[in-house]
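Write out the 3D structure for:
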Amino acid sequence: MKYAGPRSHLADTVMERLTAVYPTGADAARAVRAAAYMKDVAPFLGIPTPERRALSRTVLAGTGRPGEADCAAIALRCWELPEREYHYFASDYLRRHVGRCSSGFLPVARRLVEAAPWWDTVDTLAVHVVGPLVAADPVLTADMDAWIDDENLWVSRTALLHQLRRKETTDAERLFGYCLRRAGHPDFLVRKAIGWALREYAKTDPQAVRDFVAGSRDRLSPLSVREALKHL
């Protein structure tokens, strides 16, 4: 990523504090273990999650509420830093403030999905950033219809998971259609996401998921079927 986002005085303040505060919690041994667990997608500082969130509160104390440009600047600048905890900070920040962002934020979300992608950041962005953006502006469903067929498996996974918390407002026809469109995907992470999306919707409409799986077993992978029916 080369574009560090729009100009933002808030982002200037947050980033100055963040890059001073987070290193105080670094643990080199823990960092090595964390990087290995996450398949070395990024280096780590080695900060445990509870401590990281406490440090985040220190960073954000008194900073005020952001606008969309501030959210974009903070997220993009965090992703410019190599250590994964900075990406987690940005993901948490966007999750908290996504309601202050318009549909115009979706391209920023996509940049983040595609940068140093792994499930730890992509799934948060899919469920808690992209999902709320689409729910707030249904015009963005057209973008999801394009993302589901994207060659980038993380973009496709995001489309699969963006309705994960929609419950009764889930567009079941679209969800099932997405699952079938990606049913033959060769990557484990996409097949797993299909099962996860179906399993979550089964909490709302278990019979619909049973019927869908029963009628699609010849197309869905065993992994997707197993995950979809795990709690049924």
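The chain has a mean pLDDT of 97.
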